[in-house]
Structure formats: structure tokens, C-alpha cells
Amino acid sequence: MIMYLNGQYVPREQALISVEDRGFIFGDGIYEGVRSVGGKMFEWGPHADRMINGLAGLRIPFGAAQVNALEAVCEQVVEKNGLADGEAFLYLQVSRGAAPRAHGFPAGDVTPTVFVSASKLVVPRKLRDEGCAAITFADMRWKRRDWKTVNLLGNVLARQAASEAGAYEAILHEDGLVNEGAATNVFAVIDGVLRTHPLTPRILPGVTRKVVMELIAELGLPVREDAIPLDQLASAEEIFVCGSTTDVTPVVTVDGAPVANGKPGPMTVALREAFEARLYQAAAAR
């Protein structure tokens, strides 16, 4: 496997990072997960914008031009790993860099650590078609979830709880409201209207969420960007989660109880099909 690290394409075993790197010591970094189809990055622009915003929020000196240049790096990593003919998942991370451990920012010039890897993506078609199980889980993350930082312990514990319950995703809630999934955004149909949390620091501005909102408008479906009360989740007519490797995946049980009739609902199916059409048409057009 070939990876990109600090300007060089190297085999995985040579991709070595300092033990004093602040991404390792403090989780002081921003990451992105990007879908590649046919060697091209899907929705690169929104991914880059989100990364630029997060790096600016953490005050890591890695600007827009440097982030935008990573698209070509991603394409090279895909090509060098023989993944250009199929689908791949690109992981990008920029940390503040390596410096002696101190909580405050390092004094002097410190070069950010830049890393990109690619792995083959196999779409779990059965999960997309038949739906998944989810659990609810109290949100224990920090307050700036709109920055895609590498501080993911809350997400890790939530996903582990889901795994131990035999579920795919954990739906995170706080103050009686649904925020998002541990690694996805959450939509529900309540009283015939699609609902999802508005874009605030309480959730990640998902790139797939953005595409889904565009598709909702194109299909003329009713929608409200309004946080879903946790106590209404059990009576939802449909629930789905979405993300860069999740696409649009129906949720058919929550905490062991079926969602409506326990099958993917019509709005979810329509959006899943529309999303897949957008995803693969975009790749074919390039």
C-alpha cells in the first residue's frame, strides 16, 4: 500500500510519524473522509471547504490553496494503489505537527503533518437495500462537532456500543434531542415530513447530507431542518442515516424495536436511488 506523507509517496511501512506529533499526543488535527469513484473524488469542493474551516478553527497554518492541492494527491494515491477502476475511501489528516509536548501552541515555526491513504471500498448492497439496526446513545462529545477533528473517543464508544448490540449505527442524543449518528447524519420522517438537525456546532456538516438536501429539493419532498425530539423517534415513519461511505442507508430498527413496518420507507428508497444516480453519474461524466 502506498501512502502520502509530508510531500512523499511511500510504502505503508515507511509512513512514519514522530511520537511528538500533536495529532498523536493531543488529537490536535483535522481529517476528512472522501469517496473516490473511477479515480475521481466525489464532491471534493465541499470536503475541501469543510477541512479549510476546521483547520482555521483550530488555527493550524494550512490554508485553502494547500488543502485544494490535496485533490491531486488523492488521485495519485488512488492510482498508485490500483484503485482507479473501482471505488475507494480516501483518508486525509493534517495535524499541527511535531513539537515538545506542551498544551499551548508550539513556539516558532512548526510544519503541519500531512497524511493521505486510500483503501478499497466495497458497497454493502444488502444493507442499503434492506436496512440496518441502530441504537440510541447519549452524546458525550465536545461542543465543536462542526469541526472534523481527530478527537473521536465519543464516536468510538458509541460505535462500540452499537457493535455490541448487533447494530450498525448509534444515534446520538443530547438534551432530549437527536443530534446525528456516531459517523453519519440522521434523517427521520415524522408526520409525513423529513426532519434533520439544522447546521449548528452540535453536528458535522455532512457532505452527503448536503447532497441529500439538494435531492430532497429536486424530488419536491417536504423537509424541516429542525432537531428531532428523542421521544418521537420511536413513532417515526422512516429513518435513514447518510455519510460518505454510508450513502443513504435505511434504519429499520432502533433499540430493537421496528421502525414502522420494519422495512425501508418510500422517501428513503427514493433518496437512496437518487443519491446513487448522482454519485455514479458524476463519476461517469468526468
What is this structure's SSE topology?
Layout: E1 2-5, E2 8-11, H1 22-26, E3 29-37, E4 40-41, H2 44-58, H3 64-68, H4 70-80, E5 87-95, E6 113-120, H5 125-130, E7 132-138, H6 153-164, E8 169-174, E9 177-181, E10 185-190, E11 193-196, H7 207-219, E12 223-225, E13 238-243, E14 247-254, E15 257-258, H8 266-284
Parallel strand pairs: 7-8, 7-14, 11-12
Antiparallel strand pairs: 1-2, 1-6, 3-4, 3-5, 5-6, 8-9, 10-11, 10-13, 13-14, 14-15
Helix pairs in contact: 7-8
Distance between the termini: 26 Å
Largest sheet: 9 strands, mixed
Q: Based on helices, strands and strand pairing, what is the structural class?
A: alpha+beta
Q: How large is the count of helical segments? A: 8
Q: Unreliable runs, pLDDT <50, ≥5 residues?
A: none
| CATH fold field value of the largest domain | D-amino Acid Aminotransferase, Chain A, domain 2
Number of domains: 2
Chain oligomer state = single chain
Helical residue percent? 25-40%
Beta-strand content:
25-35%
Order of SSEs:
EEHEEHHHEEHEHEEEEHEEEEH
Question: Tally of extended strands?
Answer: 15
What best-fitting shape do the alpha-carbon axes yield? globular
CATH class of the largest domain: Alpha Beta
Query: What is the overall pLDDT average?
Result: 97
Please tell me how large the radius of gyration is.
19 Å
Going by CATH, the architecture of the largest domain would be: Alpha-Beta Barrel
CATH superfamily of the largest domain: D-amino Acid Aminotransferase, subunit A, domain 2
